[in-house]
């Protein structure tokens, strides 16, 4: 190598204009059992009914594998990284189950305050064991009211549009 070429190479390296070497990419953590996860989501059902805040406004934080979100969503998020986006379809078996025909109750009409007597209205009820739950009024008769104690999303195929915002590895 000639002296002039050697000096030019030294100057190029010193000034940072030499051919750049590929930088090692830093791997972001993947969603795995025990990860603390934050996602942005938009939720609809198979008919387009919306069950979440408007796009870009719904956020969920949870620990993967702790059953804090439905099973189908957890399974589909496994292995994703920050910044990744995905549309996830979750069928009833991996969401809130099918509609249970045994989860209906007939109660005397006079047990429901008049301002709540509207088909489709969600009301808070107390079960036989004292547990509180939400019921939806399905039918109103002369003497009785039919209450649906199923989760409102039971029997529905859910479609999530998700974006992973943050992943903290287990044990951190």
Based on the model shown, name its key terms:
172 residues; Chitinase A, domain 3; Thrombin, subunit H; 2 domains; 33% strand
Structure description:
There is one protein chain. The chain is mainly β and 172 residues long. It has two domains: 1-100 and 150-172, Chitinase A, domain 3, CATH 3.10.50.40; 104-148, Thrombin, subunit H (Beta Barrel). The chain contains two helices and eight strands, in the order αββαββββββ. The protein has helices spanning 3-15, 71-77, and strands spanning 36-45, 58-63, 85-90, 104-108, 122-126, 132-140, 144-148, 158-168. A four-stranded antiparallel sheet has the order 2-1-8-3. It has a four-stranded antiparallel sheet with strand order 4-7-6-5, with no helix packed on it. The longest helix is centred in the N-terminal third of the chain and has 13 residues, at 3-15. The radius of gyration is 27 Å and the shape is elongated. The relative contact order is 0.23.
């Amino acid at each position: 190598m000639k002296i002039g070429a050697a000096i030019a190479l030294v100057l190029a390296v010193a000034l940072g204009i030499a051919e750049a070497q590929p930088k090692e990419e830093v791997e972001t953590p993947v969603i795995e059992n025990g990860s603390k996860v934050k996602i942005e989501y938009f939720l609809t059902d198979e008919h387009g009914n919306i069950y979440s805040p408007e796009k870009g406004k719904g956020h969920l934080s949870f620990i993967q594998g702790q059953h804090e979100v439905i099973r189908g969503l957890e399974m589909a998020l496994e292995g994703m990284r920050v910044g990744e986006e995905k549309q996830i379809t979750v069928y009833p078996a991996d969401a809130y189950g099918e509609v249970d025909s045994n989860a209906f109750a007939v109660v005397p009409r006079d047990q429901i305050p008049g301002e709540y007597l509207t088909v489709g209205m969600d009301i808070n009820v107390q079960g036989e064991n004292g547990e509180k739950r939400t019921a939806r009024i399905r039918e109103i008769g002369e003497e009785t009211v039919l209450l649906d104690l199923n989760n409102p999303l039971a029997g529905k195929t859910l479609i999530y549009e998700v974006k992973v915002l943050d992943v903290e590895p287990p044990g951190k």
